[in-house]
Amino acid sequence: MEQELLKLEKACRACQRCPLGATRTNLVFGVGVPGARILFVGEGPGEQEDLRGEPFVGRSGQLLDKYLSLIDLDRRKNIYIANMVKCRPPHNRDPKPEETEQCLPWLRSQVRILRPQLIVCLGRIAAQRLISPDFRVTRQHGQLIRKGNFTLMGTFHPAALLRNEAQKADALSDFQVIRRWMQENDVH
Ligand code: URA
């Protein structure tokens, strides 16, 4: 699995399917443990991620790591983290739908290799593409949704939580839903 992921990452590094490939500093393929049963999917790399080549290493990443640690999850131990687009959109704008579509086969391949059981969508961009186009994070966060072989959940993007403290309590309760799912599915 590790070899397969490395091979995929190498192929992804050469990708120029959309214009973001030309302006990135580093590819941000993903980070985590092959064999992880939970995959977190964000939107796209920001400035820090682009500089370091790893997802969620800026301020929102620190918040994400904190929430993960509350339920004994850790990118170095038991989860995998990826983004909808692997290259930074300039000035941190949202990825355009066509960029997301061009990039999606890479995420699909990651999923095919990793075979996670639970996919947690961080924010609207991931939730609307992976769960349903009309997904509303404020209304549907924390719901476990069965789709094919996977269980999916949408929750708040950590950057949104930094902007809106009032949503933190809801986000924490979503992480407790993940903890309960882990207990019920014997995931540690
Ligand atoms: N925001 C995201 O959606 N992904 C990252 O990797 C960093 C910030």
What does this structure look like?
- The chain starts with a helix and ends with a helix.
- It has 188 residues and is an alpha/beta fold.
- It has a 6-stranded mixed β-sheet with strand order 1-3-2-4-6-5.
- It is built from 9 helices and 6 strands, in the order H-H-E-E-H-H-E-H-E-H-H-E-E-H-H.
- Helices cover 46% and strands 13% of the residues.
- The protein has one domain (2-76, 98-183): Uracil-DNA Glycosylase, subunit E.
- Helix 1 packs antiparallel against helix 5 (97-114).
- Strand 5 (145-147) and strand 6 form a beta hairpin.
- Uracil binds next to helix 4.
List the main descriptive attributes of the protein structure presented here.
binds uracil; 188 residues; 6-stranded mixed sheet; globular; alpha/beta; Uracil-DNA Glycosylase, subunit E
In short:
By secondary structure, this protein is of the alpha/beta class. It has helices at about 1-15, 20-25, 45-50, 60-70, 95-115, 125-130, 135-140, 160-165, 170-185; strands at about 30, 40, 80-85, 120, 145, 150-155.
According to CATH, what is the topology? Answer: Uracil-DNA Glycosylase, subunit E
Shape: globular
Structural class: alpha/beta
Could you state the oligomeric state of the chains shown?
single chain
Give me the strand/helix succession: HHEEHHEHEHHEEHH
List ligands, each type once: uracil
**What would you say the CATH architecture is?**
3-Layer(aba) Sandwich
Total beta-strand segments? 6
